[in-house]
Inverse folding.
């Protein structure tokens, strides 16, 4: 986004084929307020300050049947110009913007059947794509998550937490595409019937589109929130497992992290129907918002760091013999499920007869265990773990995480309220535990 | 061969083909249609261009100066045949209608 001066206004050049009337209304209102559409710069409509005037705009979709791809047609533009339509802009997909000062001018598309047909293929393509993504998400989940009990049934309790944010993201994305397809499908059906009955083809007006965009923004914010949750330290882990104070602080930081820039970048002033407005105070507002969100991010980062009581050793503080991994059959299998970018790990602390389930981004497993290890330690009930200790003949409890790095798997061993990372050959399992590859001790001594 | 969708011409299509019995370019076609129809039929440039595109793709009209940015068009023999058929169809409608209308009070 670039803002040149107070005499220039920019708005995203984004509208659907079903929103042609809305965009016309938007330009007409801008003209009435003294903002004349100058053209399209990259992906923005550029308006220049001018005298307010009453101008009629037409947004049309035109593609030659003789060309495979939509392209700018000078002949079409010239034909419109000869009829009094001033060409203003061309956007991808054969979308043209024209204007005229004459209110009684003949419309560019006088035949509603052609008007409908000019967009029907594009709208149908949008629907097909939306349905394709929806089906893909459903199939991916259906194929990958065979253990659907914990993916579908959200049980909000400490002993069996679920990846709430991951579930929400899937639901949002799915809902988003379904609503998108439904919206377009409804438009097609309604207008097909209008064309058959010889009525005018309608497109959504500005009022409707504005309402729709507010909902879109809300969905986008929720999705961003959820995605940040997955990629950052602020996710459902603390929100679900942390103390009340953890939950309050992290929720507040999370809301600020997303909310502040959103409020700053998406003001809805009277002069800015679609999105933003370029003035010095807006630049200041955005700068403050960016600074605040950076501070928020640093705050979250610092907060998480202070919550981790980890000491890093250059050499392992314990030996392989100390750990004494024994019969792997006594430990439950580690389940790993994955979809897209996220992986799900179920980490069993066998001696406490409890299991914890974690979600994390691939490659960040160390961070995961750093963050949760205290919780693991806290939940181990030594008095209840005598069977396991006797069976193994070792005082070590084992919590191992099935993460592979080449031929090796990484895990976590717990003893006397402390834990270390361990590594063992993946093909042999923990029974053939070879060495301590990682040198963090929890909590730090 | 004209596509099935062109077997019955819409009113604007009929007038455009009438206009194109002589060589014209886009704006002239719109003016000619207005003139022939006594100002009754108005065709927007978008509709006209889409229509010309369709006629051209189906061999109903041809371009007469492909090299220029502003192309002119004229009806082909296939187009004339289509126009005659449409004229005959419309004439039949009139003749049939007259039989009834004459006896109508």
């Amino acid at each position: 986004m670039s803002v040149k001066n107070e005499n220039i206004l920019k708005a995203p050049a984004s509208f659907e084929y079903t929103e042609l009337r809305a965009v016309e209304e938007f330009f007409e209102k801008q003209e009435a307020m003294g903002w004349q559409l100058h053209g399209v710069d990259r992906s923005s409509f550029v308006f220049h300050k001018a005298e307010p005037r009453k101008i009629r705009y037409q947004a049309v979709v035109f593609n030659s049947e003789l060309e495979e791809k939509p392209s700018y047609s000078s002949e079409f533009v010239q034909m419109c110009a000869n009829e009094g339509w001033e060409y203003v802009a061309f956007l991808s997909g054969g979308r043209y913007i024209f204007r005229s000062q004459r209110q009684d001018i003949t419309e560019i598309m006088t035949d509603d059947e052609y008007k409908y047909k000019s967009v029907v293929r594009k709208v149908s393509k949008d629907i097909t794509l939306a349905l394709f993504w929806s089906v893909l998400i459903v199939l991916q989940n259906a194929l990958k998550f065979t253990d659907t009990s914990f993916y579908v049934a959200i049980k909000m309790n400490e002993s069996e937490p679920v990846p709430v944010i991951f579930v929400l993201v899937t639901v949002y994305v799915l809902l988003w595409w379904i609503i998108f397809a439904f919206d377009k499908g409804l438009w097609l059906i309604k207008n097909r019937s209008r064309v058959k009955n010889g009525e005018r083809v309608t497109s959504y007006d500005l009022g409707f589109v504005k309402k729709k965009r507010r909902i879109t923004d809300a969905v986008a914010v929720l999705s961003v929130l959820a995605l940040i949750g997955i990629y950052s330290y602020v996710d459902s882990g603390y929100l679900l497992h942390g103390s009340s104070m953890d939950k309050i602080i992290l929720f507040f930081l999370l809301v600020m992290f997303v909310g502040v820039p959103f409020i700053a970048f998406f003001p809805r002033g009277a002069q800015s129907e679609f999105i933003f407005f370029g003035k010095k105070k807006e630049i200041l507002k955005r700068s403050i918002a960016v600074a605040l969100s950076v501070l928020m991010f640093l705050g979250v980062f610092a907060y998480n760091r202070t919550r981790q009581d980890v000491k890093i050793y250059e050499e392992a503080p314990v030996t392989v013999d100390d750990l004494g991994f024994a019969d792997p059959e006594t430990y439950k299998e580690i389940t790993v499920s994955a979809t897209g970018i996220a992986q799900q790990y179920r980490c069993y602390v066998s001696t406490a007869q409890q299991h914890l389930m974690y979600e994390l981004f691939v490659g960040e497993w160390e961070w995961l265990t750093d963050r949760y290890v205290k919780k693991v330690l806290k939940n181990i009930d030594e008095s209840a773990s005598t069977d396991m200790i006797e069976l193994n003949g070792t005082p070590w409890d084992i919590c191992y995480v099935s993460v592979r790095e080449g031929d090796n798997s990484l895990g976590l061993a717990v003893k006397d309220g402390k834990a270390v990372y361990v590594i063992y050959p993946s093909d042999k399992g923990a029974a053939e535990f070879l060495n301590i590859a990682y040198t963090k001790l929890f909590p730090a001594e | 061969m004209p596509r099935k969708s062109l077997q019955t011409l819409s009113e604007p299509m009929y007038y455009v083909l009438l206009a194109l019995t002589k060589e014209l370019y886009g704006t002239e076609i719109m003016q000619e249609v207005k003139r022939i129809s006594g100002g009754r039929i108005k065709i927007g440039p978008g509709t006209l261009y889409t229509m010309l595109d369709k006629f051209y793709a189906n061999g109903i009209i041809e371009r007469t100066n492909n090299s220029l940015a502003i192309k002119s068009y004229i009806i082909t023999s296939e187009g004339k045949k289509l126009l005659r058929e449409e004229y005959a169809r419309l004439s039949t409608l009139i003749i049939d209608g007259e039989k009834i209308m004459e006896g109508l009070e």
User: Anything to note?
Assistant: The longest strand of chain A covers residues 396-405. Chain A touches chain B at residues 60, 62, 64-66, 73-76, 78-80, 82-83, 85, 106-111, 113-115, 117-118 (CB under 8 Å).
